[in-house]
Specification:
Membrane-bound Lytic Murein Transglycosylase D, Chain A; alpha/beta; 442 residues; Immunoglobulin-like; 6-stranded mixed sheet; 17 strands; globular; 5-stranded mixed sheet
Length: 442
């Protein structure tokens, strides 16, 4: 080893060892859970755990019987988890135990199924660290009756984020075509299509030509309790020859292509363009604080991205045949599956001409819509109208997308191929893109 290499190795070791020590399991102090406060709002029940310090946590929903499991590594109870009353909360009983030596497990035995959302609040003045768990999807009247007799049929909420806006025009194409105008047109048409589909509620992150920071875009989606965050773009590349549509999910480690890395870098400048410094900088802290559900949400993001990508293939050339991953700041939401769609390259003259027309924007919106519908029809969130339709067989309709086969659709909906053909009057297995199929009940 050269003297220079020795100095570099020594320097790196000195820099890294404190981080390894600070975040190693042995170095993490045991956090005390001092108490539990419970409150009931019209739409959710809130549990607030008072802590002696920051924690990691993971929440698992289990059924038959219905219960929620909250795991908090390196934590212990220093008080009783017995609130004054559980009336009208949907919770029957709260119990706790120790697992794997130093990990605390809290179990909520539920009267009705509930959809948990959680977040951490840091120390603020006299207020200590807190873990907040909100339980949605329960009506106060439902706690006195069986969940099976009072189905919760909420809409699936999709946050539609038209990229850029206001003083940030995004990429500029030929004839001064601005990305912010193109993607807002696509977003509005997507919103209209989702509104017309029963069981879905679209939420526009920006409704006009205004600047919204990347962090606030995520906050808006959270405030609406979105099931999915869809960010729409039409970016540019250094070469005018770059072309095709792409779909991205978050990567915490690196981009899957040079183009993905370039696009992520350009999109992440939005806050700086608006005069706001990016706050999402500390990857080590993010790794500690992010809920373990991030892994599941990344999987969901990749899955829904694949559905959208397959649908986009029916109207445009694909830049890459798979969902790519890059570290887009707007996708860094640990609790909401998120995708970013590049509808084409505005720097490519041929694609820019199409993207500038309302008719093609409608085709793009339609392709995104079909991909989203296909994903949620196959993976409906619990407690939604779409999930109830799937269970009851009521109103199930499937629109054929690019790459679909009749046998795959039958397998997806767990019906026989013959019954699917019979219900739709098909004499063969031939289907066409855009064809509507009625899904039989059995």
């Amino acid at each position: 080893m050269s003297r220079f290499s020795h100095y570099i190795s020594t320097f790196l070791l000195a820099a890294v060892l404190p981080l390894i020590s600070a975040f190693s399991p042995d170095a993490l102090a045991i956090t005390d859970v001092h108490g539990l406060r419970l409150s009931k709002a019209s739409e959710y029940t809130r549990l607030v755990f008072d802590l002696s310090g920051p924690v990691r946590h993971n929440i698992i929903a289990l059924q038959n019987p219905s219960r929620l499991v909250i795991d908090i590594p390196d934590a212990r109870l220093s008080t009783s988890l017995a609130p004054a009353s559980l009336d009208n909360t949907g919770i029957k009983h709260i119990r706790s135990g120790v697992r794997d030596g130093n990990d605390l497990r809290i179990v909520l035995d539920m009267q009705v199924d509930a959809r948990p959302r959680s977040f951490l609040l840091g120390r603020d003045g006299s207020k200590k660290d807190r873990l907040v768990v909100d339980l949605y999807g329960q009506a106060s009247s439902a706690v006195t009756r069986s969940a099976s007799t009072v189905p919760h049929r909420r809409d699936i909420v999709i946050a539609i984020d038209a990229g850029h806006g206001g003083r940030d025009p995004g990429a500029i194409g030929p004839r001064r075509l601005r990305e912010k105008d193109v993607v807002l047109g696509i977003a509005r048409q997507l919103e209209a299509k989702l509104k017309s589909a029963g069981g879905y509620r679209p939420v526009m992150v920006r409704t006009g030509d205004q600047f919204i920071s990347l962090e606030n875009r995520r906050k808006i989606a959270r405030s609406k309790r979105a099931d999915l965050f869809v960010s729409i773009h039409a970016d540019a590349f250094s070469s005018p020859k770059a072309s095709g549509s792409s779909v991205f999910a978050l990567s915490q480690h690196g981009a899957t292509s040079t183009t993905a890395s370039f696009l992520a870098a350009s999109e992440n400048k939005a806050d700086q363009i608006g005069g706001v410094a990016l706050k999402d900088k500390d990857d080590v802290l993010a790794a500690v604080l992010f809920d373990l559900s991030m892994t599941a949400n990344l999987d969901a993001s990749l899955s829904v991205g694949d559905y959208v990508l397959r649908s986009m293939a029916g109207i445009s050339r694909l830049h890459k045949p798979r969902v790519e991953q890059a570290n887009f700041a707007v996708l860094r939401s640990p609790d909401i599956p998120s995708i970013l769609i590049e509808t084409g390259f505005i720097s490519n003259p041929q694609e820019a001409r199409k993207l500038g027309t309302q008719s093609y924007q409608g085709k793009v919106a339609g392709a995104i819509y079909q991909g989203l519908i296909h994903f949620f029809e196959s993976n409906p969130p619990d407690g939604t109208l779409v999930a109830w339709r799937q269970r009851s067989g009521e109103g199930r309709e499937y629109v054929v997308a690019s790459g679909d086969t009749l046998s795959e659709i039958a397998q997806r909906y767990k019906v026989s191929l013959s019954s699917l053909r019979s219900s739709n009057g098909l004499s063969s297995n031939n289907i066409r893109i855009g064809q509507k199929l009625q899904i039989p009940t059995s």
